[in-house]
């Protein structure tokens, strides 16, 4: 009858089955140790993977608060009680030192555009007999003696450079030229005489006194120009570039804008300065992203024939007559 037979301890009385099993266990011991080490390493790997996942989570959350502004725990909300969109006139932000609360703000007035008017003229269409060049935001307007107020307004508007000119009728036979910045704010616009004929004074938009246009802590700067070696008159397309003897820190300097470039002006000033017994230079040529310009190491300057005004070191101050009139009609 078929079957499996096991013999243990025949003749000798020894339990050979147990002995062989123990020998096999001993032989398999290295494998068991390796299996145990494998399991230990798998456990460590799993633990490190868990730590790595937690560190990645911490990194992601830390990146969300990496900026100082991320600690601003308050937000702002604007509302209005009169139907006006408050965000169109007011900006509110919160910071790290913000304190919770409700604040009532009453807007009394909005930023206005700079606007000036000329003196009154009896006609808006008759020739004014005024001629010369002016600079409106750095661009030349050449005025002929046959130009009327309306013609001058048209020339200014043709520049399309951020200002609008119009004629204001105050009453019968009383007209004024009005010039207004298209944008609100403090920058406004610049009006400069660019010839010796004092056009701005004749129009009544400026007085006789002058002030620095670009004053800095150490002195003054000129306007920016696209080139430093070309005559100023050519750069600005002036019809009659002014010339004269200006004073820089009490020293007379001859400048002719029909022939002198920025480099020439700097050289003329420094030469006159040193010839007067002074050492070093009092002016230098500089450049930035907007162009070339002159930097004066003094605020003590005096103009002649609007030479310094034409290059933007000085400007004619606004005349009191140029105040904007109310209840007038523009056309």
The dominant shape is elongated
Number of helices: 6
**CATH architectural category of one domain:** 2-Layer Sandwich
Supply the CATH class of one domain: Alpha Beta
| Topology order in helix (H) and strand (E) letters | HEEEHEEEHEEEHEEHEEEHEE
Beta-strand segment tally: 16
Strand order in space, largest sheet: 1-5-4-16
* Main beta sheet: 4 strands, antiparallel
Layout of SSEs?
Blueprint: H1 16-63, E1 115-117, E2 132-136, E3 139-143, H2 149-159, E4 163-171, E5 174-181, E6 191-193, H3 199-203, E7 206-212, E8 214-216, E9 219-221, H4 232-236, E10 243-248, E11 251-256, H5 262-275, E12 283-288, E13 291-296, E14 301-302, H6 307-310, E15 314-318, E16 329-330
Antiparallel strand pairs: 1-5, 2-3, 2-6, 4-5, 4-16, 7-15, 8-9, 9-13, 10-11, 10-14, 12-13
How would you describe what is shown here?
- By secondary structure, the chain is α+β, with helices and mostly antiparallel strands.
- Among the domains are: 109-209 and 318-331, Alpha-Beta Plaits; 214-312.
- It is 26% helix and 24% strand.
- It has six helices and 16 strands.
- The strands form five sheets. It has a four-stranded antiparallel beta sheet, with helices on one face.
- The longest helix is centred in the N-terminal third of the chain and has 48 residues, at 16-63.
- The protein is elongated and about 145 Å long.
- The termini are far apart.
- Mean pLDDT is 85; it is low at 321-331.
Would you summarize the structure shown here?
The chain is built from six helices and 16 strands.
């Amino acid at each position: 009858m078929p079957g499996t037979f096991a013999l243990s301890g025949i003749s000798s009385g020894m339990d050979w089955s147990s002995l062989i099993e123990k020998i096999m266990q001993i032989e398999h011991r290295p494998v068991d140790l390796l299996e145990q080490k494998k399991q230990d390493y798998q456990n460590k790997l799993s633990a490190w993977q868990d730590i790595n996942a937690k560190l990645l989570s911490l990194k992601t959350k830390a990146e969300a608060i990496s900026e100082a502004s991320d600690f601003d725990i308050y937000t702002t909300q604007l509302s209005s009680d009169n139907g006006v969109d408050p965000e169109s006139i007011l900006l509110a932000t919160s910071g790290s030192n913000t304190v919770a609360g409700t604040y009532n703000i009453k807007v009394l007035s909005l930023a206005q555009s700079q606007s000036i008017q000329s003196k009154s003229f009896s006609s808006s269409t008759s020739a004014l007999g005024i001629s010369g060049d002016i600079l409106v935001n750095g661009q030349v307007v050449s005025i002929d003696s046959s130009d009327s107020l309306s013609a001058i307004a048209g020339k200014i508007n043709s520049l399309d450079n951020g200002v609008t000119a119009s004629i204001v009728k105050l009453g019968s036979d009383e007209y004024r030229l009005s010039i207004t910045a298209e944008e609100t704010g403090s920058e406004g616009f610049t009006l400069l005489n660019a010839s010796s004929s004092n056009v701005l004074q004749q129009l009544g938009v400026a007085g006789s006194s002058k002030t620095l246009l670009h004053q800095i802590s150490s002195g003054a700067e000129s306007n920016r120009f696209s080139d430093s070696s070309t005559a100023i008159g050519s750069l600005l397309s002036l019809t009659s570039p002014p010339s004269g003897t200006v004073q820089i820190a009490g020293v007379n300097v001859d400048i002719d804008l029909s022939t002198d470039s920025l480099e020439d002006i700097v050289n003329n000033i420094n030469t006159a300065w040193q010839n007067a017994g002074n050492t070093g230079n009092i002016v230098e040529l500089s450049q930035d992203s907007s162009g070339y310009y002159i930097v004066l190491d003094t605020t003590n300057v005096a103009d002649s024939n609007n030479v310094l005004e034409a290059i933007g070191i000085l400007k004619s101050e606004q005349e009191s007559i140029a105040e904007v009139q109310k209840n007038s009609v523009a056309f």
